[in-house]
Specification:
This protein is α+β, with helices and mostly antiparallel strands. It contains 7 helices and 10 strands.
């Protein structure tokens, strides 16, 4: 469901400071604003100080995971056999686990939580979860627009559980449009690099984003028109 358009304008990405990841401050977290931001290559993060306006980033060096470049070690393959992968069956639980205040460098506050729950209700946000014996042990969530999947955060409570969720996501994005889809992870880290994440210049990311947005959504992430959750998938 497409929400009402945002009253906020994020400007032309070509005019953003080429040396600064932070490109805008302010606006709101309404669904239309969030979707407009992602379509321009931006994503929000709280400043960390209560009452401060929202910060919006478009990294100079963007972390992306090529769908054909995911590194799956032998031990991770074993973990994939041991865990069940589901999509959109526990979005709020995944969001809350990612936003656990005891986690270091936590950034998911109540405003972010409410905003992404609303995007989930409208069909734009998704969770990919890993389960063991009926217990949620890991997962990730993000925003899907056309051929873009913008990963936001991930968590694990069992070894490799978040990595297995990532493997499950990549499998669901691999289709006839896979070469033009974009799996965005915002910034690369040594951990993500070990899984195949690479850095690309902002201009390259934005060019790829323009090609990805008109694509149809990946079938593995589409919920039914009635809003029913997909059947759990192995």
């Amino acid at each position: 469901m497409e929400p009402p358009p945002s009253p906020w304008a994020f400007g032309d990405p070509a005019t953003y400071d080429p040396h600064d990841d932070l490109v805008a401050i302010g606006a709101d977290l309404a669904p239309g604003t969030l979707l407009a931001a992602y379509r321009r290559g931006l994503f929000p993060m709280p400043s960390g100080s209560p009452g401060d306006p929202m910060y919006w980033f478009c990294p100079v060096r963007r972390g992306v995971l090529p769908l054909g470049g995911l590194v799956v070690s032998r031990s991770l393959r074993r973990s994939c056999r041991d865990l069940e992968v589901r999509v959109d069956t526990a979005f709020a639980e995944v969001l809350d686990a990612c936003g656990d205040p005891t986690r270091p460098q936590g950034w998911i506050d109540e405003d972010i939580r409410a905003a992404y729950l609303r995007l989930y209700e409208l069909g734009w946000a998704h969770s990919v979860e890993t389960w063991r014996d009926g217990e949620l042990v890991g997962g990730l969530y993000g925003v899907a627009i056309g051929g873009l999947f913008a990963g936001e955060s991930m968590f694990h409570r069992a070894r490799d559980a978040s990595k297995v969720a990532l493997v499950g996501l990549v499998e669901r994005l691999r289709d006839e449009h896979a070469s033009d889809r974009v799996l965005d992870v915002q910034w690369s880290t040594p951990h993500l690099a070990s899984l195949g994440v690479v850095e690309v210049p902002r201009s390259t990311y934005l060019a790829r984003l323009r090609r990805a947005l008109p694509l149809p959504p990946a079938a593995g992430l589409v919920r039914t028109a009635s809003g029913d959750r997909p059947t759990p998938e192995e």
